[in-house]
Amino acid sequence: MKRADWKPVLFVVLLVFSVIAPVTSSGQVLPSNPFRGNSTSTIDIDVTYISRSPRYDYDATKNTPAVGDAVTFTAHVRNRGASATGNFAFKWYIDGVEASSGVATSIASGYERTYDLPYTWQQGHHVISFFADPANAITVKSEQNNLLT
Predict the structure, then answer these.
(1) Per-domain residue ranges for the chain?
(2) Which residues make Cβ contacts (< 8 Å) with residue 11, sequence separation at least 6?
(3) How far is the C-alpha of 6 from the C-alpha of 16, rounded, in Å?
(4) Whole-model pTM?
(5) Mean residue pLDDT across the chain
C-alpha cells in the first residue's frame, strides 16, 4: 500500500475515535453514555437543555462573563415517560472533569425539574455536561437523552 493510500484510513480511524471518545480543546475526555435503554420502559429521563445565567445580549458592551464572575449553569430535566422516575444520581462536568454530583428526587410523568451548578468563571471557552443516571440504575426508554453536553 502506498503512503497516499493511508490518508482515508487515518481519517476514518480519527473519525471513529472522535465519536467514541470526544475531547475538549485542552485534551480532556468528555463524558459519554454507552447505555441504550429499553423500549418497554415507561420511564424516559430527558436532559432537554443547559442554560447559563446571567445571560448577556450578544451586542452589549459586556456580552460574556469575565474571569471571576459568578455564573450558574442550569440543567433542565424532563420525564417524558408514563411513570415516575424514582430518585436518580446525576453528575455535572466542566471541560470533561466532574464538577459536582448529587441525587435527584423522583420526577413525575410529564414534569420537569432543574438542577443548578454555581461556577466562578475561568479564562477561555468551556464545555459543560450534565448526566442524569450516569450509572444506569434506572431502566429508561432511551438512555441517549440522559447526557447533554
Answers:
(1) 3-148
(2) none
(3) 15
(4) 0.81
(5) 87
